[in-house]
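Deliverable D2.4 — example input (structure tokens):
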């Protein structure tokens, strides 16, 4: 099957997607081109020019110190040589890893890039999610602070790992908690298929996993809308992405064998994922309960000074939990047994609960304070929308069937993960979170963010967390 909307044909793509219901009226996508080609690396000088860069002006190349290979060559020297031969004078900025051995998107790294920026400079990022997000957000902050037009910015994607490359948002650690900050689009996205093929395969499998979030996140977003907490829901993302279950079952072998067309298809899906969120003006379409669970696991790892596990694979495993949670919830929830008046914990109760939950992770209280500052907005909206909740209970058969239609079963997610040889259990991640950490993340994810997901309902309904976890983990393992 072919993708209904092909980002590789930019002008037609822009025209076609602007007709999808839910496309933001009057908004033009500023990306000038997205290239998914064998040998695209050799077009870099031309693509920089297309982005508005000028060989006579400085070019900052942002990368990390990971050695990458492409068709037997070392990728980064190859790129720098190609640029020099093309008449450019690239200056490299190599981002050093922190104590965990990884480069994370935080304001220290963003600041390192930002202090190298100047008007009339162009930026090329060569890397995967974190390097891209750091470079992107440094450009964005520099432009904002100086009131400048966007600097020419080209993203050279080195792995099919996350949907960061085409997104105008940047997930960034703020006081240890991952937050999504408004940022900017690239001018040009370069996907060189040989580079993507030769990337570590666990990154490719993670790219599939990150998109499987859709199996629960569309439902989370709709639920938040139906309960009056987030009115922004549209079906734009679903239309743009197409039937991800069918697409992945069809493409699994091409992806697993690292064929160039498999790499191109996955890169396009990943590009669509970034655009689905950006053009919905929210990460909500592809970031629901499963992403918040992943954020808590990242927070736990960060506090323990451990490296973060591969984002998309962690998200995929969290998706097995959340899709099982949906099925279990829809099977057993009975609106007739809800005492509405008991579903509204007070600010004091929830603040104490958040402080108790996160004090062991961070005795300074900074993490709990950051979580509470966001959570309290959701709690206030939940209280305000009491009538909407009551109406949804009265309309439960319809609500239930809509949620069932928007979700996919955990077995289907597992089958796709299996078919692309992705991790199927948390203990297969590197490094693996402990079983206790996974359980903590499942239970406490709703407490860190303002976005409402399925995870909030058992909290508001006062369900016993131990019983609920036992049910969900049994349901997940049953697959
Ligand atoms: Zn993600």
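Example output (designed residues):
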């Amino acid at each position: 099957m072919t993708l209904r909307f092909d980002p590789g044909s930019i002008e037609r793509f822009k025209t076609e997607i602007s007709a999808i219901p839910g496309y933001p009226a009057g908004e033009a996508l500023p990306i000038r081109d997205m290239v998914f080609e064998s040998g695209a690396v050799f077009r870099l000088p031309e693509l920089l020019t297309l982005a508005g860069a000028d060989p006579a002006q400085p070019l900052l190349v942002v990368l990390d110190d990971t050695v990458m290979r492409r068709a037997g060559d070392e990728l980064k020297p190859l790129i720098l040589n190609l640029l020099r031969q093309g008449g450019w004078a690239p200056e490299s900025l190599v981002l050093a890893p922190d104590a965990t051995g990884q480069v994370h998107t935080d304001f220290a790294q963003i600041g390192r890039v930002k202090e190298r920026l100047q008007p009339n400079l162009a930026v090329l990022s060569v890397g995967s999610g974190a390097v891209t997000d750091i470079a992107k957000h440094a450009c964005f902050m520099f432009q904002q602070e100086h009131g400048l037009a966007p600097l020419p910015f080209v993203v050279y994607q080195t792995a099919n790992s996350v949907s960061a490359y085409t997104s105008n948002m940047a997930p960034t650690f703020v006081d240890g908690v991952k937050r999504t900050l408004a940022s900017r689009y690239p001018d040009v996205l370069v996907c060189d298929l040989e580079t993507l093929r030769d990337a570590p395969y666990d990154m490719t499998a993670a790219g599939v996993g990150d998109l499987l979030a859709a199996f629960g996140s569309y439902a989370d977003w709709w639920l938040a809308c139906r309960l009056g907490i987030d009115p922004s829901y549209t079906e734009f993302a679903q239309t743009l992405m197409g039937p991800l279950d069918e697409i992945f079952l069809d493409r699994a072998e091409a992806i697993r064998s690292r064929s160039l067309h498999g790499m191109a298809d996955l890169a396009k899906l990943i590009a669509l994922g970034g655009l689905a969120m950006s053009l919905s003006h929210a990460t909500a379409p592809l970031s629901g309960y499963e992403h918040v669970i992943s954020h808590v696991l990242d927070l736990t790892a960060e506090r323990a000074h451990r490296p973060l596990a591969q984002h998309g694979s962690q998200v995929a495993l969290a998706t097995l939990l959340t899709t099982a949670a949906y099925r279990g919830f829809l099977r057993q929830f009975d609106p007739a047994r809800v005492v509405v008046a008991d579903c509204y914990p007070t600010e004091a109760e929830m603040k104490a609960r958040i402080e108790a939950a996160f004090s062991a992770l961070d005795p300074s209280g900074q993490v709990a304070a950051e979580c509470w500052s966001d959570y309290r907005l959701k709690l206030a909206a939940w209280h305000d929308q009491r009538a909407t909740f009551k109406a949804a209970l009265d309309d439960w058969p319809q609500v239930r069937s809509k949620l069932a239609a928007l979700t996919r079963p955990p077995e289907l997610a597992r089958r796709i993960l299996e078919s692309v040889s992705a991790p199927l259990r948390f203990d297969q991640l590197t490094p693996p979170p402990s079983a206790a950490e996974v359980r903590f993340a499942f239970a406490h994810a709703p407490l860190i963010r303002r976005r409402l997901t399925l995870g909030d309902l058992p909290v508001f309904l006062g369900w016993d967390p131990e019983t609920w976890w036992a049910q969900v983990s049994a349901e997940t393992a049953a697959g």
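The longest strand covers residues 59-64.
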